[in-house]
Design goal:
The chain has 219 residues and is of the alpha/beta class. The protein has one domain (24-218): Alpha/Beta hydrolase fold, catalytic domain (Rossmann fold). The protein is 34% helix and 27% strand. It has 7 helices and 10 strands. It has helices spanning 3-21, 65-71, 96-100, 103-113, 125-132, 172-182, 205-218; strands at 24-30, 36-42, 47-52, 75-79, 117-123, 139-143, 148-149, 152-153, 159-168, 185-193. The strands form 2 sheets. The chain has an 8-stranded mixed sheet, with helices on both faces. The longest helix has 19 residues, at 3-21.
Amino acid sequence: MNKKILFLLFLLLIVGCEKKVENMGTVMLKTFDNVNLVADYYKGNDKGVVLLHMLGRNKESWSNFPKELNQKGYSVIVLDLRGHGKSGLNYKEFTERDFNNMILDAKAGKEYLGLSKVAVIGASIGANTALKVADEFTTGILLSPGLNFRGIDITNTKSNKPILIVASEDDLYSLNSSKEILNNLEKGELKIYKNKGHGTNMLDKETKELIFKWLDEKL
C-alpha cells in the first residue's frame, strides 16, 4: 500500500472521529416562566439524562461526566441553572421561591430531550431540585441532598420512582439528611462512601461506575 493511499485512509479516519464528537452543542432553552437557560446538549440514543449542578457552579462543573454518559449512549443535557453561568437571572438575588422555581429548569431540560425515558441527576441543591421533579422522570440520582437547601425543603418529599442517593460520611449534614429522605422513597437506595466530599466532588471512577450501573438497570 503506497503512501498516498495511507494518507487518504488517515484523513478518512480523522473525519470519522470528528463526526463522532460533533454530537455536542450549546443550546438555548426557555422555561415555563420565561427564563432563558443555556445548556450543553449531547445527542445520543433514545434514553436521556438531565444534569443539575450545585449552588454557585455551572454546567462546566460536571467536567467530563456528560461526555462519559454520552459515550455510554445516553442523550445528555447539562444546564446552567437559572441565575448561574450564562443563564438568565442572578442566584445571589434569589428568594426561596426563586430557588424552588429551578424545578422549571429541570422540566425544560426534559422537554428539550423529548424522550420517554429520562433520568435526572442533581448535586447538592441540584439534588433537592431533582427530587422535587423525580416523579416526572423515569429515575433520579441525588448526590449529597440536604433536607433544606436555600428553601428547597425535601423533608417530606415522597416519590414512587427508583431513586439513588449518594452521600459521604465526611459530609455530615447531607449524610443525616439522606437517611431521613430515604424513608419517604418507595424505591429508594442509599450508597454511603467515606471521605468523598460533597456533590460533584464525589464523582470519581467508583461513583461513576455506580451511577452507570444504576442507569443501565433503571432507565
